[in-house]
Amino acid sequence: MTSIEAHVQQPYKYGFVTDIESEVVPAGLNEDVIRLISAKKGEPEWMLEWRLKAYRNWLKMSEPHWPNVKYGPIDYQAISYYAAPKQRPKLDSLDQVDPKLVQTFEKLGIPIEEQKRLTGVAVDAVFDSVSVATTFQAELAKYGVIFMPISQAIREHADLVQKYLGTVVPHNDNFFAALNTAVFTDGSFVYVPKGVRCPLELSTYFRINASSTGQFERTLIIADEGSHVSYLEGCSAPMRDENQLHAAVVELIALDNAQIKYSTIQNWYPGDDEGKGGIYNFVTKRGKCAGRNAKISWTQVETGSAITWKYPGCILQGDNSIGEFYSVAVTSHKQQADTGTKMIHLGKNTRSTIVSKGISAGRGQNTYRGLVKIMKGAEGARNYSQCDSMLIGDKCGAHTFPYIDVRNSTAIMEHEASTSKIGEDQIFYLRQRGLSAEDAVSMIVNGFCKEVFKELPMEFAVEATRLLGISLEGSVG
Amino acid sequence: MVAVERLVGAYNTWATNGASEVPEWLKDMRSGAIARFESLGFPNMKQEAWRFTSVAPIAEGSFEQAKPPARIPTLEEIRPFLLLEAGYRLVFVDGFFQRALSTPFFDDVQSLAHVVTHRQDLVRQHLGKYAATEDRPFSALNTAFVNDGAFVHVPAKATIAEPIQLLFLASGKPAVTHPRNLVVLDREARASIVETYASLSHGAYWTNSVTEIVVGEAARVDYHRVQRESPGAYHVAATQTHQGRDSTVNLHMVAFGAALARHDIGAVLAGPGGRLILNGLYLLASQQHADHHTTIDHAADHCESHEYFNGVLDDKSRGVFTGRIIVRPGAQKTDSKQTNNNLLLSTDAHADSQPQLEIYADDVKCTHGSTVGPLDPRALFYLRSRGIGEHEAQQLLTYGFAAEILGRMEVAPLRAQLDGIVRGRLAEQ
Prior knowledge:
Mean pLDDT of chain A: 81
Largest sheet of chain B: 11 strands, mixed
Radius of gyration of chain B: 21 Å
Structural class of chain A: alpha/beta
Helix content of chain A: 10-25%
Number of strands of chain B: 21
Number of domains of chain A: 1
Mean pLDDT of chain B: 93
Shape of chain B: globular
Number of helices of chain A: 11
Oligomer: heterodimer
Largest interface: A-B, 35 and 35 residues
Low-confidence stretches of chain A: 1-9
Low-confidence stretches of chain B: none
Number of helices of chain B: 10
Number of strands of chain A: 24
Largest sheet of chain A: 10 strands, mixed
């Protein structure tokens, strides 16, 4: 294994810091900070009330410790809950965006200037606590699609936000969701009206820049009857010795015959070889198929973060609704991941598919944890789960903890899991065909993940393949 | 808490009166265990290992410490519970050894209470060394009340031809028994054992048993456990095996009875080249609840384990299965497979399945699979198209599902007996 392992440890590419003047609220969390955030965002009274309610609940909750990850205590009073670049650009003109910010996103491969935009993808760029630019807003408006920072949506589309926000992930859902509800700053809001097939891929790019802050974004996507939307999020952060907290909440709502495809490429700073620094990625993501024949599909490629802890789930409430979860999680160095999904079958003939691929290298610990719950009323429900793990090196770990709870005798549920290492015979075969050891490994790993990558939108599948190559580089021999 | 205090009180009375004539080391073991139980208390459903099983009926039921039975049953009365005619047997009624009904073999197949003094060194070397009590309140409680149970020792290179039967009968009185069994196979020894729990009359009683099985180098044991407690009984048990180099353990666990049953099965493959088969069946109806927690610990390299658990759930029954496979650092070339299949025969039946893999070595092959579902409608249709009635077709398919597990048992007369019990149970449904 030596030469392959030696290849894998490549430095994090997005670890630079943008030197920009920021407005940072002093560290600490109390009701005044929440009022301040709310005031900065110009929020209506009901929003502030909701935040305060969540905060008061949060005070009564205790931090959960059941996942299979280890980390030191988090000091919630040492985090600054709001950081924004000083010259706030006006959203109607991208020319007024601070060139430093434009450069930052360009460096990350996310051009927000008019002429360089990715064709066919509308981007909302979030820098620390604020959204700095949202492209193609006007174009989308022609179709009636609303795509804007959530803080703007709270002001401009209060009725929609008020109707749906917190209906999938309630303010007291869990410790980190409650914290997010109290202090969330920005994130994206998407509304796709009845019968509209969103003409562009929607995308949000999250960047943490300021130190001693956390990022608490909130995303709300509503697909009205018969509509279709594909959304992608990406993220990165500078290299720092401190651990920064990222506690986001994502809510998806699909009404009758609507489809939402949500893809994530998560590349937060994973910490160094010794596990120093890196992002704690503690995220609550949940979708609700509220209507008949609705479909929600989660695809995630998790390569970053010191600790990843998230379970994008689907509540399959409408009859015949479909939930899907495709995941590739890579842990190398000292990364830890405890991730998986929750599929809650409520409606008749609901179907769910889970395909999870975990890759552990170096001293990484990778855990799949998933729940499939088939309730009494879910006649004819169907689930198929497959969890495969691949181990590269003898100091890493791969764990699988599925929870299966079936309360309806007409439901059929299948779960399969396997763990294996890259076969030496496979590598030998590829090498005698003239491939280098590295290319051979990369080919095998990509084949292992193919089922998931094919679910990603085209542009991002390429990105994901490349990312996987980077985080595994040098780990096989 | 009241229940815990009551049990601790019962222990104190018992330790000062009836149970004082034992070696010091055993007294220390008991007092350590009761302290452990006192600090742990009864488990609650907030604990991960007890998420699906409430022990409230046990904690709230007032079970007396079992007393020697007023009347000893005759051999004729216990014959229906003996699954085999031949072979050595040890019979216990309400936890008390019945010499008249048993056929012990010197100090090798004996009651534990007897060998505690007669083979002190061997017992001391093994007793309580394998079954964990740190986080297991029921095992701690059993250890505190350690008194009698079955003891089997097979010396090096010896083979015991006929299966040894360990029969635990309950009179049905609302009492608690803590049977404690110790099985030791020295190197290259072979034996086949059948441990049965049953009841002479219907009643709500509580059995809290612990069995430790130590298998030496290149030894082999076929261990069968048949749980046929009364429909109102509470059955809590722990079975722990410890395998040496190149040894073979075949565990067959069959659960038919009890209102509430919880069985923790642990297997440690401590030496290289060990082989383990863990084969289980739970057949539940009415409002029965059975919870099986299995942990297979691959602590050494080149070991192989195969686990198969099938559950048939009818009426309002609930089957819980949690199977964990741990592959320790350095346990390379491990080959481990696990399956748990559940058949739901009624709309009110309920299955929970948690197969778990915890792997810290890279050169391993580990898989698990789990299914929950009804009988295959196509298979039913096929049988019906051949002129078999719907009810019979259902029975036939269900029987086939259960027979898959029984088919792995190598002791033919025992397999036939269990087959008969399964057919009888299915005919009732």
